[in-house]
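Could you please consider the sequence and fold appended to this message?
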Amino acid sequence: SQKTKVSRRSYDEQFKRDAVALIEGGRKIHPLARELGISHWNLREWKSRYGTGAVAAGLQARSAPQAKLDEASPVAMAAELADLRRELETTRRQRDILKKALAIVSQENPNSMI
């Protein structure tokens, strides 16, 4: 029988460095790995390889071209997108609850004497 070839995704060095910068900035490895769609083992390996402690020291862990103003890394954008999607879902749930509460409150009370 033939073995099926498993294709591996490859990530450029800047993506890896930006992911490590997020970890060094305080993000937890497991949730970040889920958000980025990668293995937590990859993140741990990248941290050992690219981790500089630059974020903890107050320095940016970016390359010179990436440090331009108004330029966000793909990793940072993916993490922010995941955060915004979570916030949107929470806001939608709150809105739905408020709609239901308004409908209940606005119903006429049959026992009221007006």
About this structure: The first helix runs from residue 13 to 24. The radius of gyration is 23 Å. DSSP finds four helices and no strands in the chain. Residues 13-105 form one domain.
